[in-house]
């Protein structure tokens, strides 16, 4: 028996997603900024379970993303094979996320495990597009948690990106910049000191976004011990 085609696998995956839809949750999700007119309202734990059932399937991941259904796009990140992601595909996914949870889940589930991840961060950080720029800092936050082998120097260099983006007052950008700064500072004691120094500098900027990023980061970094090196 021949393997099911990508079209057949996509049809089966969409059927599984629709069977798990929660239309009663959509209004609440919209209030929390989880946008998307095609959204089904599938819970993230259910998406993760479905991703495990489907297994790694890069061709299916690309087809799921192209549906424009936010739930399917999150599932795409879960079944994607990160080493097969091209720069073009990563750029397209970052640009077409259109919702903070889709953007962040792509970073967490797929981008962070790609060998191209670090090179995308500075490129996306300079982008004007809101979702691409968010992806830069969401990915940086994920790398701070999950890339155990990365040297401190990589994160110290990335502080310049935070300083350059801190005056972007778009909500989804400034929250990602803040997230990246906090996660970098919680990585280890040395980076915590560098992140605090960076936040102290941002606190003196005249822009409201920079001051908000600084205040929120300092509140957490001063209250939470850095993670121990493993």
Can you describe what's shown?
- With 230 residues, the protein is mainly alpha-helical.
- The longest helix has 17 residues, at 130-146.
- It has helices spanning 6-19, 26-31, 44-54, 58-66, 70-79, 87-95, 100-109, 117-125, 130-146, 152-165, 171-185, 189-203, 208-223.
- The chain starts with 5 loop residues before the first helix and ends in a 7-residue tail after the last helix.
- 67% of the residues lie in helices and 0% in strands.
- The chain folds into 2 domains: 1-80, no CATH class; 100-230, Alpha Horseshoe (Leucine-rich Repeat Variant), CATH 1.25.10.
- It is built from 13 helices and no strands.
- The model has no long low-confidence stretch (mean pLDDT 96).
Secondary structure blueprint with pairings:
Blueprint: H1 6-19, H2 26-31, H3 44-54, H4 58-66, H5 70-79, H6 87-95, H7 100-109, H8 117-125, H9 130-146, H10 152-165, H11 171-185, H12 189-203, H13 208-223
Brief descriptors of the model:
230 residues; mainly alpha; Leucine-rich Repeat Variant; globular
Termini distance? 47 Å
Approximately how much helix is present in the residues?
Answer: 55-70%
Flag low-confidence runs.
none
| Apparent shape | globular
In short:
This protein has 13 helices and no strands.
């Amino acid at each position: 028996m021949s393997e099911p085609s990508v079209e057949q696998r996509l049809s089966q995956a969409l059927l599984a997603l629709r069977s798990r839809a929660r239309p009663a949750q959509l209004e609440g999700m919209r209030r929390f900024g989880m946008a998307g007119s095609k959204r089904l309202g599938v819970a993230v734990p259910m998406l993760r379970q479905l991703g495990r059932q489907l297994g790694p399937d890069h061709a299916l991941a690309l087809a799921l993303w192209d549906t424009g259904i936010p739930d399917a796009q999150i599932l795409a990140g879960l079944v994607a094979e990160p080493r097969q992601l091209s720069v073009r595909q990563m750029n397209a996914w970052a640009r077409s996320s259109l919702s903070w949870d889709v953007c962040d889940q792509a970073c967490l589930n797929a981008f962070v495990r790609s060998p191209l991840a670090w090179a995308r961060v500075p490129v996306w950080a300079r982008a004007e597009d809101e979702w691409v720029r968010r992806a830069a800092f969401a990915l940086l936050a994920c790398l701070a948690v999950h890339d155990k082998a990365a040297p401190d120097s990589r994160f110290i260099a990335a502080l310049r990106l935070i300083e350059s983006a801190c005056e972007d007052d778009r909500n989804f950008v400034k929250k990602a910049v803040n997230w990246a700064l906090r996660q970098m500072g919680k990585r280890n004691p040395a980076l915590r000191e560098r992140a605090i120094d960076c936040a102290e500098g941002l606190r003196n900027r005249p822009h409201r976004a920079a001051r908000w990023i600084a205040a929120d980061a300092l509140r957490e970094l001063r209250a939470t011990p850095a993670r121990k090196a493993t």
